[in-house]
């Protein structure tokens, strides 16, 4: 099948997922468009046909996909449109995220033909998986991307074959992280954090605050602050490190499903 268009979509509060997904662009012979689902926005209303490819990347939050991704994609429509799903995760585990994303897309008319789970620096404890993805990860990921496009070229239009992805159909329970970023005296109210918050959880007129009910602890504000004035509490980071430390210590390779 000759593709008409490839669309790269990603939700990426601290940038790792965007980087991984963008690395796929050069492999597409068809024109590539990009949809960044991260900034606060109305739900996407695009329809895709069976000569298009959707490539979508999300970070793993608590073994699941961030719920806001589903909100932003509530009205997308596919028509036996092939999709590739990518989950980035901080070297603990991706659990049910690939499966959840694929199930969600399937209900919208897409057929997941391939998936990948890629280790990235942990956005809460950046000493975990620091420097990932590294050269080796990208070499493997590029090879996977090439295979995906070869598979599509050999595919008959309208008949994509679904891939089996790991994950429990009864997804892991994750209700979010209870602790939220706090602001110290170095804040100069530049509002860089307000601009990057995907949830509108930082008020423009009082950027040192965090609206707890809206915040998803995605760390976008912490990484964007030019004064390093926003952070999680030291005890919160220590708790997270202890909680995930053991499983996250073992070097995990990217995993591909085709
Ligand atoms: C709220 C939250 C929950 C997370 N849960 C997991 C997890 O369950 N497993 C894991 O390995 N990494 C987890 N991570 C790490 C992220 O999945 C990882 O750093 C991801 O690459 C961040 O993507 P981004 O840079 O595009 O924002 C979590 C990060 C956050 C902020």
What is the number of domains? 2
Task: Count helical runs.
Answer: 7
What is the CATH superfamily label of the largest domain? Flavodoxin domain
CATH class type of the largest domain: Alpha Beta
Side by side, the strands of the main sheet go 2-1-3-4-5-8
The first-to-last residue Cα distance is 17 Å
Small molecules bound in the structure, each named once: flavin mononucleotide
> Looking at the structure, what is the overall shape?
globular
Corresponding CATH architecture of the largest domain: 3-Layer(aba) Sandwich
Overview of the molecule:
The protein is of the alpha/beta class and 258 residues long. It has two domains: 5-170, Rossmann fold (3-Layer(aba) Sandwich); 182-244, Alpha-Beta Plaits (2-Layer Sandwich), CATH 3.30.70.20. Helix content is 27%, strand content 17%. The protein is built from seven helices and eight strands, in the order E-H-E-E-H-E-H-E-H-E-H-H-E-H-E. It has helices at 16-22, 67-72, 97-106, 135-154, 192-196, 220-224, 234-249, and strands at 5-10, 32-36, 52-59, 81-89, 110-119, 182-183, 230-231, 255-257. The protein has a six-stranded mixed β-sheet, sandwiched between helices. A two-stranded antiparallel ribbon has the order 6-7. The longest helix has 20 residues, at 135-154. The two termini are 17 Å apart. The mean pLDDT is 96.
């Amino acid at each position: 099948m000759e593709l008409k268009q490839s669309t790269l979509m990603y939700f990426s509060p601290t940038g790792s997922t965007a980087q991984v997904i963008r690395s796929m662009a050069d492999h597409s012979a068809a024109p590539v468009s990009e949809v960044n689902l991260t900034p606060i926005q109305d739900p996407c209303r695009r329809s895709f046909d069976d000569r298009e490819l959707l490539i979508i990347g999300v970070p793993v939050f608590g073994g699941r996909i961030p719920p806001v991704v589903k909100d932003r994609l509530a009205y997308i429509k596919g028509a036996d449109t092939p999709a590739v799903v990518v989950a980035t995760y901080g070297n603990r585990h991706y659990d049910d995220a690939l499966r959840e994303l694929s199930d969600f897309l399937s209900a919208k008319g897409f057929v997941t033909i391939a998936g990948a789970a890629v280790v990235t620096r942990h956005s809460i404890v950046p000493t975990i998986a620091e420097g990932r993805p590294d050269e080796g990860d990208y070499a493997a990921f590029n090879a996977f991307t090439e295979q995906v496009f070869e598979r599509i070229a050999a595919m008959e239009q309208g008949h994509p074959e679904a891939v089996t992805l790991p994950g429990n159909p009864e997804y892991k329970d994750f209700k979010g992280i209870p602790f939220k970023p706090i602001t110290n005296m170095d804040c100069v109210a530049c509002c860089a954090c307000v601009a990057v918050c995907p949830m509108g959880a930082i008020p423009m007129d009082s950027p040192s605050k965090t609206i707890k009910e809206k915040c998803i602890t995605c760390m976008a504000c912490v990484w964007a602050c030019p004064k390093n004035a926003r952070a999680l509490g030291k005890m919160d980071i220590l708790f997270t490190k202890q909680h995930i430390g053991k499983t996250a210590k073992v070097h995990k390779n990217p995993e591909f499903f085709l």
